[in-house]
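Appendix B. One record, verbatim.
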Amino acid sequence: MAIRRPFLLLAAGLAASCSAGATTYLVRPDGTGDFPTIQAAVYAAVAGDVIELASGTFMGLGNRDVDYLEKAITIRSQSGDPRDCIVDCEGSPSEMHRGFRLANVGSGGVLEGITVKHGYQYDGGGVFLLASAATIRRCILSENTARQGAGIFCDLYDGPTISECTIAGNHATIQGGGLCI
């Protein structure tokens, strides 16, 4: 029986579309895993990819001031429990750092199941949202400091979704210790 050429092209096209999809990258606090830091994983990620953070405390260059680079990606804890996955920004008045910056990120941008603490920044010590419709879910934002929005700061509000988060013990010098929109 002869197989016709249009059928082969259709089969090849279906196989290619089935193999394409989101990639999940694993990052560990000790620098092992698919990438040595969270930011290094973000550089490699494309829309729809997932960056999973193993349990432990992430600190230092590349694991704070993480910029989503306008990508619709997910950064989440591997365990799903924010108490097991901590981003310690190590921020201070002399050395400002925040956890995450999500600028111009559509609804495909997600931050999930992570604790962000010790951020210190002008606006958004923990998380800074700029014209972003991202989702922040099941996160803990604590012990962050900023002029405004020490836990989370939303500028040019574009409808982010913030759900099931604990935002407590943050300090703002002007307004919005927990959240400022």
